[in-house]
Amino acid sequence: MPNHSLLEEIKSKKIKFNGVSSDSRSIKKGNIFFAIPGNEIDGSRFINQAIKKGAAAIVVPSYSKKRFPKNTTVIKAKDIRKSLSLLAFEINKNNIETKIAITGTNGKTSVAYFLSYLLRISGKSVATIGTLGNSVLKRNKYNLTSPEPIDLSKQLKKIGQKKIKYLVMEASSHGLHQSRFYGMNFDVCALTNISHDHLDYHKTINNYIKSKMILFKDYIHKDSKLIINSKTKYIKKIRSILKKNKSVKPLYFQANRSYKIIKILKKNDIQHVKAIVGSKRILLKFKNFPNFQIENFIFAISILNLIGFDPRKLSKSSLNCPSVLGRMEYVGRTKTGGKVYVDFAHTPDALKNSIVESKKLETSNVHVLFGCGGNRDRKKRPLMGKIASKYADKAIVTDDNPRYENPARIREEVIGNLKNISEIGNRKLAIKKAISELKRGDLLLIAGKGHEKFQSIMGKNFPFDDVKIAEKYLQKNEKIHYNY
Predict the structure, then answer these.
(1) Do the beta carbons of residue 277 and residue 298 sit within 8 Å?
(2) Rg (CA), the chain
(3) How far is CA 330 from the centre of its chain?
(4) Which CATH superfamily groups domain 92-315?
(5) How far apart are the first and last CA of the chain?
(6) Fewest C-beta in 10 Å: which of 53, 263, 407, 433?
(7) Is residue 45's pLDDT more than 80?
(8) Residue ranges covered by each domain of the chain
(9) What is the pLDDT of residue 147?
């Protein structure tokens, strides 16, 4: 991380300011305005507006050739996003003692949840920031996985003021690529896995992987612990990138004899697990947990072991651990004995893993109900259709968050020429029908939206909760008939 600080330049120019902003709509008199070039909107368009509102200074990219009114204080930054983050974290300092960051395509939220659970039962104060929001400040409505730097720095300052000692934070590929938390150093950096996702933004899988790897380069200090789950598709690529930096030596979970799962044995609804963490053999029990969540739980224990926690003490809490919101979350049973789970699986690999794990939980048929979001990576739509067709015993394609796209076209792209997938556009009706068709030993996986409490259609967010809707029909569970 560079030693140069924008704050030093501001002091040398004797600029008096009272805050920073990258949004001209909310800028206040005396703020420093950062004109950030975005993917859709260029911040330089709003410089004049910021000046009129009384901005103390304007920060622009070093390549900017824009002309400014007289008496405007202008600072040119080589990397404007990093400069904004550095300044935001310098202004809003926090005193959180231990910081843990988790990145990965799937599993970030689950590992963060398990870390929080394990820390709390160990008597530690902890805050989590990620897909489910801020656990302390209770900010979770349509939250970015990795908030923008000004907002994030303010959140961390408030968390520190509450004397919370541990922070568990999800690090998204967008957040890493856009340097949203540049200036932070983490005591543990962890990677759960990498698979096909967000290529609408990153364009190629190589770019996506490189964005994830930034965590292990720009956000560590000399004593940071690094851990990576070796059971991921692109592990060779990950290893080759990290080998270029000889000072970065991660521990590879599952490939390291001191950190691995030995055996999972299912007896009725209980899984009995043997594992090794920190060279210690541990025994764990779980109820209605899919195998990949068991792996995430033990990965979380491994992370805490790296900073001094006893894995045997932590393992005793496994049986009482609740499901993660929207991550293979057990909803309940039908009157006929079928089980219903809700999962956030919205990528091809995640959907495949969830269906495969569902088959391990039940002996009869696995039904899956899913869709794909609008205005997002279109390449994954046919892939997800093929996965559902191949691995599920019965599949229904419905609407996810169509956003500004035609939902019928999205469903068409998912299904393609597949003959064994049915289609019900209305997600509520699709859930109702899917539940009504479950028999004893069957399992319904409602995938794609997980923890979300809304459905995004044409720029509006309408209340929608897969879990609550499924619970409603589990209570009624009347036999219903449709004519399509």
Answers:
(1) yes
(2) 24
(3) 20
(4) Mur-like, catalytic domain (3.40.1190.10)
(5) 60
(6) 263
(7) yes
(8) 6-78, 92-315, 329-476
(9) 87
Token pair, residue 305, equals 């072991």
Q: Determine which helix (DSSP H) or strand (DSSP E) holds 210, and give its type and residue range.
A: helix 205-213
In contact, 189 and 253? CB cutoff 8 Å: no
H/E run at residue 475: helix 466-476
Task: Classify domain 329-476 at the CATH superfamily level.
Answer: Mur ligase, C-terminal domain (3.90.190.20)
**CA–CA distances in Å: residue 449 to residues 69, 327, 369, 382, 416:** 48, 10, 11, 18, 22
Burial of 161 from C-beta contacts in 10 A (0-12 / 13-18 / 19+): exposed
> What's the number of CA atoms in the CB half-sphere (13 Å) around residue 217?
15
Contact predicate 17/28, CB 8 Å: no
Report yes or no: 35 and 48 within 8 Å, Cβ to Cβ. no
Long-range contacts at 376-381 (CB < 8 A, ≥ 24 apart) = 376/200, 376/403, 377/196, 377/197, 377/198, 377/199, 377/200, 378/200, 378/413, 379/196, 379/199, 380/196, 380/197, 380/199, 380/347, 380/348, 381/410, 381/413, 381/414
Rounded to an integer, what distance in angstroms lies between the CA atom of residue 63 and that of residue 115?
A: 43
Instruction: State both tokens at 257.
Output: 């004899």
Residue type at position 214: I
* Helix residue ranges, H only, 35-165: 47-52, 80-91, 108-121, 149-161
* Cα–chain center distance at 452: 12
* 8 A C-beta contact, residue 164 and residue 94: no
List the helix and strand counts (H, then E) for the chain.
17, 22
Q: Which CATH superfamily is domain 6-78 in?
A: MurE/MurF, N-terminal domain (3.40.1390.10)
Q: Is the entire prediction scored with pTM above 0.85? A: no
In the numeric block, which tokens belong to residue 389?
């067709």
Q: Which residue has the tokens 């040119």?
A: 76
pLDDT (tens digit per residue) in 94-137: 999 999 999 998 889 999 999 999 999 999 999 999 988 899 98
Q: Evaluate whether 369 touches 434 at the Cβ level (below 8 Å).
A: yes
The torsion region of residue 394 among left (phi > 0), alpha (psi -120 to 50) and beta comes to beta
| H or E segment to which residue 174 belongs | helix 173-177
Average pLDDT over residues 332-360: 91
Token pair 């364009």: residue: 203
